[in-house]
Amino acid sequence: MKDLEREYHKILSDYVKDQNERNLYIGQNFVRQLIRRNVAPEDVVSLHKEAVESIFPEEIEGLRTAYDFLIEMMVHYGMALREHQSLVQKQAELQIEMNIAANVQKTMLQTKMPNSNEIEIGMLSTPLKTVNGDYVHFIDDENYVSIAVTDVVGKGVPAALCMSMVKYGLETMRESGHIPSRVLAVLNRIVEQNVDDSMFISMFYGCFVLEENKFYYGSAGHEPAFLYRAKEDKFHDLEANGMLLGIIPTARYIDNEVVLEKDDMIVIVTDGVTEFREDDTIDERGVVASLINDVKHLAPQQICEYLYQKLEEMHEFNLKDDFTVVVIKKN
């Protein structure tokens, strides 16, 4: 530190004497040495104070208290600066992780919308932030069409990798894809063995068997789907009991079924669709059903887009979570 004191004394003395650009430039370059030596802001003020005392001994008395105050200020400034820099670094690291997770979703989690003469499907999934915690996967088999809507409570790379594991688990069960209870039970064991305890996964799994005109479904702690009966012009909840995936390896799931007739609809959502108000004084599922009812004559994709647009326009609308809706209409 003594060598820095001597060097700084000379730099300041030369600048006070001549006050030219060259001496100022030398002082600016001296900053690099201070940074390399990891000199704290308050120590820089101490250097300056001691140099001033040496150069202007007769004038320093009145300034000494002011310098002492500045040193104390710099102590706290240095602490706050280091805390801020640490936070900025963590945010940068988090952003890198989120970008990686988003890239994983784009490359590994792509799914193709089924093309069937029996049903028409629309889907909209809007993330709250960079990475979507919701995941929709379709399987288009010659005998059935299945839809899995998943909500992963967790973000970043771990959540994206969890979704990829769920995807490939679904793909390996094509032969039993028409039995929701079996699909959910297998996925439950996979998740329980491979996913951290801090992550929770809900899923609504549905399968439309073409020859039967039946929609088989099951749930692992997921938001109930909507069933619209065209003949009744009425909405019903598709309730299905089942524990979240990965909680208990021996959890059992139940198969449910409904017959779909012309213009009947199944609407599968995540809780980001039905939890959009700060207070609980409104029937949010009722609002969603009413909005869908207004445009039930439209194509499923148009219904999805209309629903999001209208909810976003509502007073006090507050998107708290990722927003995902799948509409299935019987032709």
From TrEMBL:
GO function term, MF aspect, one: phosphatase activity
UniProt xrefs under InterPro entries: Bact_Sigma-Reg (IPR052016), KaiA/RbsU_helical_domain_sf (IPR017944), PPM-type-like_dom_sf (IPR036457), PPM-type_phosphatase-like_dom (IPR001932), PSer_Pase_RsbU_N (IPR014787)
SUPFAM superfamilies with a match to the protein in the record: KaiA/RbsU domain (SSF101215), PP2C-like (SSF81606)
Pfam family, one: RsbU_N
Keywords associated with the record: Hydrolase
Residues in PPM-type phosphatase domain copies: 120-330
PANTHER family membership: PHOSPHOSERINE PHOSPHATASE RSBU (PTHR43156:SF15), STAGE II SPORULATION PROTEIN E-RELATED (PTHR43156)
UniProt-recorded name of the protein: Phosphoserine phosphatase RsbU
